[in-house]
Each structure stands twice: as C-alpha cells, then as structure tokens.
Amino acid sequence: MESTIKQQILEAEETLRQAMIRSDVEALNELISSELLFTDFLGQLVTKQQDLDAHASGAIKIDDIALTELQVLPVQETVAVVSVRVYITGSYNGNPASGNFRFTRVWSRSPQGTWHIIAGHCGTIA
C-alpha cells in the first residue's frame, strides 16, 4: 500500500509541476484544495484563489521547475507529506525571479480517490 501511495503522489507532483509551468489554472484548481493553507517564501499566507489568480493573470510565469530532491512520506491511506527541493526559473510581475526553494506539501485523498494539496510551505535555500 505504501508504495502505491508513493507512486500516486509522485504522479500528482509531476502533474502539479507541469500545471505550474503551463499556468494551467484548470489543472491547478483540481489539484489544490479550496481549504488550502500555504505559506510562501516571504511568510505570507496564500489562498487557493490568490494562487490561481496569479497564474491566470500572468503575474507568475514559470519557465522551468527542476527537481533535485523529492521525498514522499505516506502518513495514512489518505494523507501524505512531500518535501521537494527545486530550482525555479521564471518571473513575477514581469521581473526575473529564479532560485532554489524547498517546498513541503501535505496531500489528502478525497473520498473519490483524487489527491489534493491541503497545506504547504515554501522556503528559499541560500
């Protein structure tokens, strides 16, 4: 069971990565819980709608997300925690914004069997 959950989360993480690069708001909407609690690298709480709006408006433009580390910790049959180190290239509000970051995400599986991000945190890596 643990290996199945890990595989499902790895697939969800790749779907998320691709959706972020394409600013695919529809896919992001499916992956992110409406109850999302996400703290960005500035320590600000970001809602699902704020994240979707930033992608839809073009404020966030991601050219690439290169993974250098990814760990999945299944907690229960319906919860998993991910720690991932990434190098992101892109822009924010038209200004270049690239760097090394570590994300922690909590995924929860719905009664329908789909995985959604319910919480997350991002930090910069010096």
Explain this structure:
The structure is a single chain. With 126 residues, the protein is of the alpha+beta class. It has one domain (2-124): Roll (Nuclear Transport Factor 2, Chain: A). The protein is 30% helix and 51% strand. The protein is built from three helices and seven strands. Helix 1 packs antiparallel against helix 2.
The domain count comes to: 1
Secondary-structure element order, N to C: HHEEHEEEEE
- Which percent band covers the strand fraction? over 45%
Q: Tell me, what is the CATH class?
A: Alpha Beta
Considering DSSP H and I runs of 4 or more, what fraction of the residues is helical?
Answer: 25-40%
Tell me about the biggest sheet?
7 strands, mixed
CATH architecture: Roll
What is the count of helical runs? 3
Strands, total number: 7
What are the segments in which pLDDT stays under 50 over at least 5 consecutive residues?
none
CATH topology: Nuclear Transport Factor 2, Chain: A
